[in-house]
Amino acid sequence: MSVYQDRKDELEKHELMMGVPRGRLAVTLDVLTDALVLVGQHGVYCQSARQLGKPAMDVQIIAKSIEDAKQLISDVMSELAPNKGV
Asked: What is the distance between the alpha carbons of residues 75 and 71, in angstroms, rounded to a whole number?
């Protein structure tokens, strides 16, 4: 099943409120946030042997990559804002 079918309701709602490009980016941010939550939960159980109290290095790298992607998407959404530069 495609993402457009899986998240049909979310896409319709956000596309109506923000327009198609920004609405899809908003849903993308939601998907990345969900992934970040799951990575965070995994990090609780997958602790680093070298850095006590921190997730394993691969979990840290995945979380950082998702956060970076969210920031980039957020910046694009700001650039696409209808009143940008007004």
From this structure: 6
- Cα(23)–Cα(13) distance, rounded to whole angstroms? 8
Which pLDDT tens digit goes with each residue over 44-84?
Answer: 888 888 888 889 999 999 999 999 999 999 999 999 887 76
Q: What is the pLDDT of residue 85?
A: 57
The DSSP line for 15-75 is HHHH-HHHHHHHHHHHHHHHHHHHHHHHHHHSB-SSSTTSB-HHHHHHHHHHHHHHHHHHH
**Domain layout of the chain by residue ranges:** 13-43
pTM of the model: 0.84
Instruction: Please say whether the beta carbons of 54 and 60 come within 8 A.
Output: yes
Report in angstroms the alpha-carbon separations of 54 from 14, 39, 59, 61: 35, 13, 9, 12
